[in-house]
């Protein structure tokens, strides 16, 4: 008979599940129910607290329980795909609905759990690309680096052996739409992502070049200057935050000098198309 789950540490239980998935289905169901209960409890606590950039002052034990169970379930989802079929969506929904109120540590762990599922091809990055861009706008530098790096490396890895044009077009469309929005923070993160993928020659195509050129005519002067700076190879695209209480150092592609080669004619052509 299996040991009671409360007498097993989560890492030990995870190891036992890998060896005997069927033998630990009851423990899995119990832990999954605990995760859902913790998530609901946390949402209730979050609704009672003032929301801030740094997260809410909720009971740390509730956040830790939710974080531990989320990471545990992410590691065993491939062993119980039927039992945990809704789990990836629940993670994404939590980030979509409560990312601003989640404490920084919990927010990062939920994002890491979702990233793990994407890396294991249990979730498609296309479903969460817009979410990862939005998470980069919260003023949380650790989360920004985590999600930005994941997006870049996922798309790069996807194109290593061969180019999946249909998939690339779908992902590009998401970023192009975000880039055209008046929301400066989302547009900026979309532009930085496109520029980095172009610089790495992952998306070294006309569609991406056109999108970057179009950003030269964005309603936000900052987006316009950033796009022009990249096209003109002007040192860097600054990836700092404007608020005094947020990071302002170089980060992501900020420390990289762009290597894009685009003709002036292409820039003018795009400009004429926006008039």
TrEMBL record:
Pfam families listed in its UniProt record: SDA1_HEAT
Highest taxon, organism lineage: Eukaryota
InterPro entries in UniProt: ARM-type_fold (IPR016024), Sda1 (IPR027312), SDA1_N (IPR012977)
Signal peptide stretch: none
Keywords on record: Nucleus, Protein transport, Ribosome biogenesis, Transport
GO biological process, one term: ribosomal large subunit export from nucleus
Domain SDA1 N-terminal positions: 72-262
GO cellular component: nucleolus
Subcellular location: Nucleus, Nucleolus
Function: Required for 60S pre-ribosomal subunits export to the cytoplasm.
Annotated family: Belongs to the SDA1 family.
Name of the protein: Protein SDA1
């Amino acid at each position: 008979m299996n040991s009671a789950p409360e007498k097993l540490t989560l890492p030990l239980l995870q190891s036992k599940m890998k060896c005997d998935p069927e033998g630990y289905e009851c423990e899995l169901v119990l832990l999954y129910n605990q995760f859902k209960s913790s998530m609901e409890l946390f949402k209730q606590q979050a609704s009672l607290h003032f929301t801030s950039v740094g997260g809410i002052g909720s009971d740390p034990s509730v956040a830790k329980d939710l974080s531990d169970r989320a990471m545990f379930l992410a590691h065993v989802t491939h062993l119980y795909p039927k039992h945990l079929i809704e789990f990836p969506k629940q993670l994404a929904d939590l980030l979509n609905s409560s990312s601003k109120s989640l404490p920084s540590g919990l927010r990062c762990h939920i994002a890491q759990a979702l990233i793990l599922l994407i890396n294991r091809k249990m979730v498609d990055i296309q479903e969460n690309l817009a979410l990862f861009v939005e998470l980069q706008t919260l003023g949380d530098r650790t989360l920004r680096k985590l999600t930005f790096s994941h997006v870049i490396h996922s798309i790069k890895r996807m194109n290593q052996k061969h180019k999946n044009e249909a998939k690339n077009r779908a992902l590009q469309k998401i970023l192009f739409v975000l880039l055209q929005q008046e929301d400066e923070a989302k547009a900026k993160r979309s532009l930085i992502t496109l520029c980095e993928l172009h610089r790495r020659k992952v998306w070294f195509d006309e569609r991406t070049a056109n999108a970057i050129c179009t950003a030269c005519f964005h309603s936000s002067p900052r987006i316009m200057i950033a796009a022009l700076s990249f096209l003109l190879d002007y040192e860097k695209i600054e990836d700092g935050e404007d608020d005094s209480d947020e990071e302002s150092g170089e980060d992501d592609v900020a420390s990289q000098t762009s290597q894009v080669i685009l003709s002036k004619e292409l820039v003018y052509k795009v400009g004429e198309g926006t008039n």
